[in-house]
Amino acid sequence: MGLILNPGNDNSFIKLVKVKDTRVFVDKTDLIEKTNALCNTDENLVAITRPRRFGKTVTAHMLSAYYSKGYAGQDIFNKLNIAGKDSFTDHLNKYNVIYIDMNTIDGLFDGYANKKQKADGVNDLVDYIEYSIIKELKSNDDFSECLKNHQIENTGLLETLLAITQDLNTKFVFIMDEWDLVYREYRNDEILQRKFIKLLKNLFKADGGQDCFILAYLTGILPIKKYNSQSALNDFDEYNMLAPGEYAPYFGFTDNEVIDIVKSPNCKVSHDDLKEWYEGYKIKGVDIYNPNSVRKAVTRNECISYWSKTSSNEEVVRLINMDFDGIKKDIMDLIEGARVQFDCSNFQNDMVTIEDKNDVFSLLVCLGYLGCSDIAGDEDLKQAYVPNKEIRRALMGLIKKQEWYERMETIKRSEKLLKAIQELDGTTVATLIQDIHNSPAVALLDYNDEESLTYCVMTGLLWSTLGKYTSHREEQTGKGKADLVYEPAIKGTAPLILIEFKYDYSPEEAIAQIKTKEYFKRYAGQYNNIILVGINYSTKTKDHQCLIETLIK
What we know:
The protein is an alpha/beta fold. The protein has helices spanning 12-18, 30-38, 56-67, 73-77, 102-113, 125-139, 141-149, 157-168, 181-185, 190-204, 255-262, 271-278, 291-300, 313-322, 327-335, 357-367, 389-399, 409-422, 426-437, 440-443, 450-465, 507-516, and strands at 45-49, 96-101, 172-177, 213-220, 226-227, 230-231, 237-239, 253-254, 281-283, 286-289, 340-343, 371-375, 378-385, 469-477, 480-488, 496-503, 530-538, 543-550.
């Protein structure tokens, strides 16, 4: 057992299995049945890329624990879903696995580069990858004699693997986690990138290369790099956020899996809250939740934005500030609920070759900051959207730090709307809501009920209330449920706002309902200043009316 060849350590998957009865654990081992079906076929090269914290590493560790001779998989998997499948024992711990964690290798190379004595020919990260794999192969008892007989000294990795495969009639499973690290961390080093791709092409496209592997599995964030509009590793079947294919249920939690999670007596957060905060990645008809965020929310009993603490915020800011074709405005519209069409056909799958808004949206989808849906009839056309509350909060937090933020008309309108409510200016509120109703985020809605009206007002107040208020819909208060409540994040800093909506009635009737059903009772002892807002939409005039009062005790 080694770091690369047949690792046998307690990896992230095994650690999860050990605590599966006391911690959040979702069994994704059915994926193994799918990879087993690919072994020793002409479809045995697979690349699956997903955003950070979507279970890529734990899944790669699962495959390593299943295929590698370094593990006792019967003990690990015997109570998991895969144990009930016909193919379970066919490939269980029968192969030599070459497992490359690019983050670990990159860190080790940093240390190696500082050494005074280095191996001949090891000058960069790609050289170090080859050197490290060959070193472990030579030190393995099963291969050392074979490689001595072939006098393997300064030959490359492919020649080393071919010697083992041909003489010992054995094949390898190749797993590389974070394959795209070279394109993210060395984004401006094109020489290193091309050298890295050449190494992989030699392994999987050169004569005899594929014969060395029963299965190859790559994970990462970015899709496989394109050169001249062609994938650099076009022998791989690739599944990414722009073209996810059939592997959607195995990365992220599905809705049914989250429903099972909240059934635990230890879970204090609701299914609806988890759905609002962390779902929204609709991949091939499957609703996917961010698994890392769900685990943290359930463990901490709190739904907040965990994404902003793990993702490439600086990269997102850079992309937005390029402002191709008014992308700043587009991002703000997306945050408010709009959808924006883009074309991913020319995206080069890197973080440098960004030439227009289409490339920006494509990259943001791959990074997980946007979801995307297909447009019928054209596989390259997509619709971008903000998937959930967590991402919306993260994006809003980034945008509010930009120097151009307060100059945006959307921000000015939101601040003006909150100010008008606090100043009891119903006429201005009605005028602004009319304007918001016609905005890109709202205009596409079927504006025919109180639900649409509620969404319109929440969209308008989105920016001005961030960090100042928390909003509650259908809040149980007094003798019924208030349509919308804005509660100050810190009591005493602002008035409480109670909003009631009507459709083809009047704002006076909305105010009367607040009073009659005593929606304010729940808050009367906590707030000295409570504002009552009644809003009506008339289908006859297509106008909004608004009446605002302060509660008189």
